[in-house]
Amino acid sequence: MPKVALEALCASKEAFLATLAPIYEKSPWVAERAYASAPFASVTALAAAMRDVVAAATDAEVVALLRAHPDLAGRAALAGELTAESTVEQQRAGLGSLTPGELAEFRRLNAAYREAFGWPFILAVRNASKRAVLGAFARRVGATAAGERAECVAQVHKIAWMRLLDAVAHTPAGFLTCHVLDTARGCPAAGMAVSLRRVGDHGDLPAEYAFVTNADGRLDGPALKGDAFAAGAYEWTFRVGEYFAAAGVPVAATPFLGDVPIRFGIDNPEEHYHVPLLCSPWTFSTYRGS
Amino acid sequence: MPKVALEALCASKEAFLATLAPIYEKSPWVAERAYASAPFASVTALAAAMRDVVAAATDAEVVALLRAHPDLAGRAALAGELTAESTVEQQRAGLGSLTPGELAEFRRLNAAYREAFGWPFILAVRNASKRAVLGAFARRVGATAAGERAECVAQVHKIAWMRLLDAVAHTPAGFLTCHVLDTARGCPAAGMAVSLRRVGDHGDLPAEYAFVTNADGRLDGPALKGDAFAAGAYEWTFRVGEYFAAAGVPVAATPFLGDVPIRFGIDNPEEHYHVPLLCSPWTFSTYRGS
Amino acid sequence: MPKVALEALCASKEAFLATLAPIYEKSPWVAERAYASAPFASVTALAAAMRDVVAAATDAEVVALLRAHPDLAGRAALAGELTAESTVEQQRAGLGSLTPGELAEFRRLNAAYREAFGWPFILAVRNASKRAVLGAFARRVGATAAGERAECVAQVHKIAWMRLLDAVAHTPAGFLTCHVLDTARGCPAAGMAVSLRRVGDHGDLPAEYAFVTNADGRLDGPALKGDAFAAGAYEWTFRVGEYFAAAGVPVAATPFLGDVPIRFGIDNPEEHYHVPLLCSPWTFSTYRGS
Amino acid sequence: MPKVALEALCASKEAFLATLAPIYEKSPWVAERAYASAPFASVTALAAAMRDVVAAATDAEVVALLRAHPDLAGRAALAGELTAESTVEQQRAGLGSLTPGELAEFRRLNAAYREAFGWPFILAVRNASKRAVLGAFARRVGATAAGERAECVAQVHKIAWMRLLDAVAHTPAGFLTCHVLDTARGCPAAGMAVSLRRVGDHGDLPAEYAFVTNADGRLDGPALKGDAFAAGAYEWTFRVGEYFAAAGVPVAATPFLGDVPIRFGIDNPEEHYHVPLLCSPWTFSTYRGS
Questions:
Q1: What pTM does this model have?
Q2: Could you list the residue range(s) of the whole structural domain that residue A81 is in?
Q3: Are residues D73 and D189 in the same domain?
Q4: Does C214 contact A at CB distance below 8 Å?
Q5: pLDDT tens digits for range D97-128
Q6: How far apart are CA D121 and CA D139, in angstroms?
Q7: What Cα–Cα distance (Å) separates residue C125 from each residue in B19, B97, C25, C102?
Q8: Is the minimum CB–CB distance between B162 and chain A shorter than 8 Å?
Q9: C-interface mutation test, from D127, D170, D283, most C Cβ less than 10 A away
């Protein structure tokens, strides 16, 4: 489904609701009230407005919002009665192919959780494995009611965010940068070959990009920006072994660090992501920088 | 070619030389003199004895050893006249498929280097890319004679080490361990799924191993040891995103760190390699530990 | 005041209450109910039992516990009517010497907070600066009621923990270890001089200890243990510049890293603290290990 | 002694030599030949020109330069016959107050070293401890002649660099910056209090500076620049515990990280030093950035 432009969306309440009513599960009132703050300068701003609507809602409305969500691997899922969005989300987490034992475990946990809290267990599962889902479930079924309510609202917002990014074209504010520092010699790592590839399904965007670091250890300009900078998983590969061998820093015959992959996720393509590498021949680290 | 056991090798000088004479390029005297120190408790000890032979050799012998090496991508390589060992090594670095421009560059550098130092440019290339070779070549052709001699001897020892590991079965002293620390919460990362796979050609050894960290964030016992712990490249994959999501530490809808690969090389399978992970949802690092 | 031994404390309910009734501010019922679980093998176990009592208390009891706490820099503090414990705690954070402007700010925040939540703002202030207190106050006065209640209970438990450690002798289970890794060369940093000193007031314990790392980069045995291992702040000093200079790893005339201090806090002297150093001449890191 | 301005120095060969002849120990020819490249835009450029002179000198001249240096703690030192520069340098390393046993050890090592190499052991000792000097001595007395010659020339250049910085005013090109990242939450650490102090003797420069990080986790402008940015040791103190407590990130009653000191050396005040902090409540790291 092609993404809608933010401007087109804000042009009329009808267009707005046509696209955004399903963002919060079976709760069109969230989109409806958020429209009062239109237009929005970014998907980030739109998402914030929708979260504000939920924060300002009554207790009963929030609980109704939580209750509107389906059980994970629950009756509705088995009967094929989920919303289109929920169906895709649960399948991506492998919840469509559970063993009988796992199904029984989900049934037991779903029942215990509903009994304890009065609403279904909610988890943004699209990027979660079966193992992660069961781990979170086991922990959360024993949490406090106040804690779980806050946790479920946070999960609902995560689900909404991923649905928003699927439905609405992001603005070109975000970009990806890199910086490589040589911590064996205390200087920028100049002339290091770096490549970037997308991990998983990214449609028809190019699969791989190649760079070489400049004298300051940086790439000349953003590695990705605009439309090409989509949410999802990416992987740098840094030619660390090659770099140190060429520089004459002693490395082993089979270097401890040769090609170093760094896999990372982009959650908000309207933000700047700085993902650097600090490396010697014997250690490396990365972090979300700024 | 099946590897020879160290004991069989040391049983007679004939057996020793049959296998080890080619370890130092066209210089059987290294193996011959090293035999005086037989038997050897490990490939590591054998390699050290051979390095000691070179260290004790005369200047003329060392220069002859350097001169016994072929040019990289040189006349002998093009004519198919390399030793079996050198042929494989140069091909693995992609030197068998150079463009005419690259060939001309190698020819120019080889000539300039020989002119400057009186022996060929020597680089342990099996794990090096064409790019790394040219980078090192360009830097080293301008180095001092004393520096280059020391560098070439170091490269000759690296080449010998890789040939030794191909020819002789290593002792089972080495092993691989892991430790995962959660630096968001200051505790061992317990219950994290970890897998280990070999990268590249490892013959008929199993391809992948799966683990879960224990209460101390460690694996129960070595991940690899004995024959299964061969020299080469490996990759851990740590389920960091899953771990933090299950633990309730806030992560994004698309987590910055999901599955974290850590690729590393084992140079000496007779040593202990400790390759840990320190991670929060926003940073990670690794290093060769002990 | 000399600390009481855990055994003596558990010997009679009278002794228990004489020491522990004031641990939770004006709420002797916590100690009273915790006594049902006596004896305790450690201060850690005793503290856990007291936290369990609070977790099992009624809503009204918990709110009464929160309300039993004084305002920070409030009327009682100015009038000298705090409990002995609270007086010391507020003074250590510099709340005894506020400027008129700061006092006015505290008065405003105290009033706003009580108005919003119905109990006083609670913060374990003994190790907090005036700046930290005002920062936390400004943020928390706008938080949700559920969040603040959880936060205040957490702070109450921190206050109780520090009072417990002042009153009861800890068991000798805890100890401090170190490990230094040379990430420039990928090996343990052997032969590095390391010293350890206490920061702040530690009574009559020795002020400084000197060590040298062994071949594995570790100290021979714990740096501190038993009675000498008290809660509080400590500082390692690692002679990193000296180590690399002696090893022949190039460093500048004025090394980037010379003597490297690492300051850290021990919160629970009944636990193992592993505080290692990873260093090259150009970077270092530390973490709470295990 | 007031420092001379670079311009005044380059105005006449006489002025140049008056100040720079003693920079290379008893070897005024280095300054003399370097003057051919005057004027110099920076002390860095002047130092490079002097190093180039040494690199272009004959073998005999270089060996004479090495031989012009005094033994460490040697006869000349005991007799008070060192150059003014050497006297200060040896005293700062504590070589003026050796025990009889240490003196004997130095005498033994000096003799063995001269015997092996034909010139005295040379080490830039101003920032080295007695322990570092002895450690380097013990290792280097067994090194190769080619290695030691290169090492001694490197040490001679370090000594010259420190003498140059004492004698000549540096240009205002260098500056010091900082950046603090919160790796618990994956964002810049905004609003963290940071101070900077000089360690050791810095004459009449201010002793301490106070800052607060801005929204990007940086200081507004350089922490030091121009004349105030002198070579020597410095120490940041980051209020990490206070920052996380105010932010509501859980920390212990006695936080593992409270005030975090980071001590570092500035070797070249004409360069940019970026000395950042990456921190969670349980780990931190720093490095020389760019």
A1: 0.94
A2: 4-169
A3: no
A4: no
A5: 888 998 899 999 999 999 999 999 999 977 77
A6: 11
A7: 72, 69, 14, 16
A8: yes
A9: D127
